[in-house]
Design brief:
alpha+beta; nine-stranded mixed beta sheet; five-stranded antiparallel beta sheet; globular
Length: about 650
């Protein structure tokens, strides 16, 4: 028996199957609890009286695609949720009446993406919604009566990317990209947008500056703002005088979330996430609650739902070495009551700690990163294995997003199978200030890729990774990075796993969803403008498709057929090129998925294929293992388009 086999194998189902419960919330009046849980094998909405959880019942009846998210209506009389079809991301809005159980579609349109623009503390039976059913590029603002379903046009939108409202459900601010790739902000009065912006940003601040909402009296507009500085700070702007006051700042990371007074909209606390998330409270009572919760709960915690009177919170807790827990926090009684465990099948499982680390790039940039190691290699949880081991470089999507600290199913599965897992916030990642983001401008396949290579070299130099046993894996931009890794630096990686990754940046930019059109300038300024000779040359050079003949290492590709962001053609193109060059590739297509996997059966089947693909490639280079495929493909919709013979058990 190998060292890794002495540790219990965590079943894929426990990591990627339906959670027992998730997204717990409490009704505005505190009388009801709600959550998502399986009903007929599909994640649906459940409710129960707070005083009688045994009376829980499912109130939605989705029988195919899981409900991705929901919320209580402001008046507490209904639950609102969104749902798309097959992963097309045309999310429509639905309402379920708590008293009668009646369900209606509030946005009964085809080829439409609905979005809630704003809700009110004082007008509880109406919300503002955006609908792009008139013009797919722009969301018109409508007032929605939650009781009757009546929609009334408030503002026809012919050029704006978004809006801000106040508590009276007045549209107060409109957002539009400018020709320089920055953002212009316009005042709105009586649903008419002013001609000239009252605030503007250059391109360099466009991802780190944004309005953060009004106080309920409309007197203060909060901003997360990096203008004139590096990291985004929190400012309060007087809406009459325009005077701005600095509220909070951090030198290493952007101000992230805010915690508001539900009656006034005033900011009571804010968060900063560098390597870990930290909350800082201005309000004495909120600080006392945060301090008490931190004393009771190990790891990381946060507030996910609150009653209108703010006396009861629903609190999540990530213990880091155990499955996520959710509690009901009574602030008056100072008690925590267990609500549920998200994945109880992981209780007692050998979950491994995630180590926050800093890696220095070749040009001196600090890359906040996260490392997880197999228990067999690091029994004392020091963050360094006894000897170099196979490693998976797991690259996040976006690229204007980030990796975070805490429980990660993919990290845990791979570590349990014997791999070190390294996730790197490469330049272009968000949360670390505008200088860090802008260092990635027009660096797809260049300095952004160099950061990933530098992280691999760091892991090798530290004795973590064996040089000939490093895989690269990721989704969306992470899928692109996988293709780039195998095409641009084929000597670095032993294999790659690409999930919905673009292979051709020209076709990627020509097929973006229509509702992204108001923001297309940001892609051109940060990736390359296909309308210019220089930009087109840059996009061609950064496209792995154009260097696919350099790929020599095993590659697994997964794609959703309905993906509106990275079209199926992105995967089809590179698979076709590799076939034409007689380069082995395994290609898995999911006809009922979009940009990733929503259905657990599909997610489980993919990770089953992935772990057996990795074991097939790296099994001879280290102490790794895989849970056999078994009949995992049967309940999924996976279609093995190419290369079944390259994965053990896949060819049947």
């Amino acid at each position: 028996m190998t060292a890794i086999d002495q540790s219990p194998l965590i079943p894929r189902d426990a990591l990627f199957g339906n959670p027992a419960r998730s997204q717990g919330k409490i009704s505005p009046d505190g009388q009801w609890l709600s959550w998502l849980a399986p009903h007929g094998g599909v994640m649906n909405i459940w409710i129960a009286p707070r005083a009688d959880l045994a009376a829980a019942k499912a109130i939605s009846a989705s029988n195919d695609r899981p409900i991705p998210g929901y919320s209580w209506s402001p008046d507490g009389n209904s639950i609102l949720y969104v749902q798309d079809k097959g992963g097309d991301e045309n999310f429509l809005l639905y309402r379920i009446d708590i008293a009668s159980g009646e369900e209606i579609s509030l946005t009964p349109f085809e080829n439409t993406r609905a979005q809630i623009i704003g809700v009110s503390e004082t007008i509880k039976d109406h919300v503002l919604v955006g609908l792009n059913n008139r013009d797919p590029q722009f969301h018109d603002v409508h007032m929605l009566d939650l009781n009757t379903g009546e929609l009334t046009l408030v503002l026809e939108n012919n050029g704006y990317a978004g809006f801000e409202i106040d508590d009276a459900l007045n549209v107060r601010l409109a957002v539009r990209q400018n020709d320089a790739g920055g953002t212009d902000y316009f005042r709105v009065a009586r649903n008419v947008v002013e001609d000239e912006p009252f605030e503007t940003t250059e391109m360099e601040d466009s991802l780190t500056t944004t309005p953060a909402g009004y106080t309920h009296d409309g007197a203060i507009l909060y901003w997360l703002d990096s203008r004139g500085r590096n990291t985004a700070a929190l400012y309060a702007q007087n809406t009459v005088t325009g005077v701005r006051t600095l509220v909070a700042e951090d030198d290493k990371a952007d101000i992230g979330g805010t915690f508001r007074d539900q009656k006034t909209g005033e900011v009571l606390a804010y968060s900063v996430t560098y390597l870990k998330t930290e909350w800082h409270a201005f309000d004495a009572k909120v600080k006392a609650s945060f301090d008490w919760l931190n004393a009771q709960l190990a790891g990381q915690s946060g507030v996910m739902s609150r009653t209108d009177d703010d006396r009861t919170w629903i609190v999540w807790n990530d213990p880091l070495n155990a499955p996520l827990q959710t509690y009901i926090y009574d602030r008056d009684a100072t008690t925590l009551t267990p609500f549920y465990t998200t994945r109880p099948d992981l209780e007692g499982a050998p979950l491994q700690p995630m180590h926050p680390i800093e890696i220095t790039s070749r040009d001196g940039l600090i890359l906040p990163s996260y490392l997880t190691l197999p228990i067999a290699s690091d029994p004392d949880a020091t963050g360094r294995p006894g000897k170099a081991i196979p490693m998976v470089l797991l690259v996040h999507g976006g690229p204007w997003a980030r990796d975070d600290y805490g429980f990660n199913s993919t990290h845990q599965m791979l570590a349990n199978r014997g791999y070190g897992v390294l996730s790197v916030n490469f330049r272009g990642s968000t949360g670390f200030g505008k200088d860090f983001i802008n260092a990635g401008n027009k660096q797809w396949g260049l300095a952004m890729h160099d950061d990933l290579i530098d992280a691999v070299e760091w892991a090798i130099d530290e004795g973590i990774a064996a040089r000939d046993a490093v895989a690269i894996m990721g989704g969306s931009y992470g899928g692109y990075a996988t293709l780039a890794g195998l095409a641009f630096t084929p000597e670095v990686f032993a294999c790659g796993v690409d999930i919905v990754g673009p292979s051709n940046l020209e076709t990627l930019l020509s097929t973006i969803p229509p509702y992204w059109a108001p923001m297309v300038k940001i892609f051109h300024e940060r990736m390359g403008d296909p309308g210019t000779d220089e930009g087109l040359k840059m996009l061609k050079a950064a496209s792995p498709l154009n260097k696919s003949d350099a790929i020599t290492k095993p590659l697994l590709i997964a794609q959703g057929a309905n993906d509106p962001r990275v079209k199926q053609a992105e995967s089809d193109q590179i698979v076709g090129a590799m076939k034409a060059a007689s380069i082995p590739v395994t290609y898995v297509l999911y006809p009922d998925e979009g940009h990733g996997f929503a259905k657990p059966d599909n997610s489980i089947s993919f990770f089953a294929i992935a772990e057996n693909f990795l074991a097939e490639t790296l099994g001879a280079k280290g102490d790794v293992r895989a849970e056999p495929l078994g009949d995992v493909l049967t309940p999924s919709t996976a279609e093995i388009v190419e290369g079944a013979e390259h994965v053990k058990g896949l060819a049947g």
